[in-house]
Amino acid sequence: MLKYVNVGIVFQEIPDEVTLAINISNCPCRCPGCHSSYLWNDVGIPLTTDVLDEFVGKFGTDITCICFMGGDAEPEYVSQLAGYLHQAHPNYRVGWYSGRLRIAPTACKRMFDYIKVGPYIAHLGSLKCKTTNQRLYQQVENHEFKDITYRFWSRNE
User: Could you tell me which residues are beta bridge partners of residue 9?
Assistant: First the structure.
């Protein structure tokens, strides 16, 4: 079962969204230079649909998006939670950050409005850098995904 360590309202994870970021532990990616290495350990509180409902009750009026930060150890479960959010709380968009180069084939991508992929590689920079290896995709028509990484770049020029 996935566990979360903490949550926070963030403004830069997903462009034009006020996002509740849920930091998930037991990350198998272990990226060198990771700013959240405390999430490598299997610690925290089980992440369930009841917990998601609590988050919506607590933060719901302040957010437009809920983003799973991690969860690569259990991509099927992250997909299930995303599907639950769309069904139970359809007013929110749902995102997922995976440190993998590609989303696991066992994940159900269509459950997400946004998917960010790519390990953090310090010399390539974050999404704000044109040299980044990371990419942010937004689901558009017919469950296709469009690369919207460039939307971060224009903010810094």
Answer: 20
In the numeric block, the tokens 């099927």 are attached to 76
Residue 110, number of CB atoms within 10 A of its CB: 15
* Residue 135, C-beta contacts closer than 8 angstroms, at least 6 positions apart: 116, 117, 118, 147, 149
| Spatial distance between the Cα atoms of 96 and 80, rounded to a whole number of angstroms | 12
122/71 Cα distance (integer angstroms): 21
pLDDT at residue 157 tops 80: no
Query: What pLDDT sits at residue 154?
Result: 61
What per-residue confidence (pLDDT) applies to 30?
Answer: 87
Write down the pTM of the prediction: 0.93
Characterise 30 by phi-psi region: left (phi > 0), alpha (psi -120 to 50), beta (else).
Answer: left
What count of residues does the chain have? 157
Q: Is residue 108 within 8 Å of 21, Cβ to Cβ? A: no
Using CA atoms, how far residue 75 sits from 98, 127, 138, 146, in Å, is 9, 22, 18, 21
Residue with tokens 């949550």: 7
What's the rounded Cα separation, in Å, for the pair 51 and 38?
21
